[in-house]
Amino acid sequence: MEAETAAKRARESEVAAAADGAGEQAGISAVIPGWFSEISPMWPGEAHSLKVEKVLFQGKSDYQDVLVFQSSTYGKVLVLDGVIQVTERDECAYQEMITHLPLCSIKDPKKVLVIGGGDGGVLREVSRHSSVEQIDICEIDKMVVDVSKQFFPHLALGFEDPRVSLHIGDGVAFLKNGRRLPEECSRGHLRCSDSRFLRSSRSCSGAVREAVLPVFKGSVNYAWTTVPTYPSGVIGFMLCSTEGPSVDFQHPVFSIEEDEYSTKSKGQLKFYNSEFHTASFCLPSFARRVIEAKAN
């Protein structure tokens, strides 16, 4: 028993030493050694913490600090500039919703562009759609792609699809160089600090909706879902279409969860389904008032 206790203490000391080496900039708490704490001025006064079992990777690319660690409860975790991007346990909520909300709202999408998403998870979900013929991804940071392939192969398998073309570079420049927007462009999603922030007149959901309206002249709608390791546990999605036939984003025209090709190629979905698709557009009363006020 004493030997086990000593071994445990030694292991905790190693984790604490790794945490101290990562430094506060990377988000490893110096106050509670062995714990990762996501502290940011974007959500002042709060922090979500995960216990660190082992630091697997630390690096600094041309753009950001990159950290991967093994947590005790959420599996492996990818952190960029001190902000959690992906955990093995809850990645399905984000990847499946941001992909299938738009793609299941239109009939037979053919071309898809993903801006960002270097972990490959969105690509994995897009590749479930047999109608898609071309998938372009523009990721600015090659280190994110490489780290994902090494530590998150269940996400990075999205890069293996022959329809995928990877472009390393700036997404805005990619679009300015004559690239056309395809059916789904994953270049914008909304992260709210917490539900209280939605209650203010400067709500991020209302502000983003106001900003996209001059650009996207077609349908614009807002959905949300839960991702436990994101600030407040909630993330929003702004769904937009350009001129043309209106898109009823709230009612899917394709049931990906019942599609044989999807299940055979990537297995069963863990989070998204058609009922949840529609439900994700149901907003709390305070959020609905904010968004409706911005629309008028």
UniProtKB/TrEMBL annotation:
InterPro entries, per the entry: PABS, PABS_CS, SAM-dependent_MTases_sf, Spermi_synthase, Spermidine_synt_N, Spermidine_synt_N_sf
The name this protein goes by in its record: spermidine synthase
Chain ranges of the PABS domain: 33-179
Taxonomy of the source species: Eukaryota, Viridiplantae, Streptophyta, Embryophyta, Tracheophyta
GO cellular component assignments: cytosol
PANTHER family: SPERMIDINE SYNTHASE, SPERMIDINE/SPERMINE SYNTHASE
Domain of life: Eukaryota
Entry keyword set: Polyamine biosynthesis, Transferase
Catalyzed reactions: S-adenosyl 3-(methylsulfanyl)propylamine + putrescine = S-methyl-5'-thioadenosine + spermidine + H(+)
EC number: 2.5.1.16
HAMAP family in UniProt: Spermidine_synth (MF_00198)
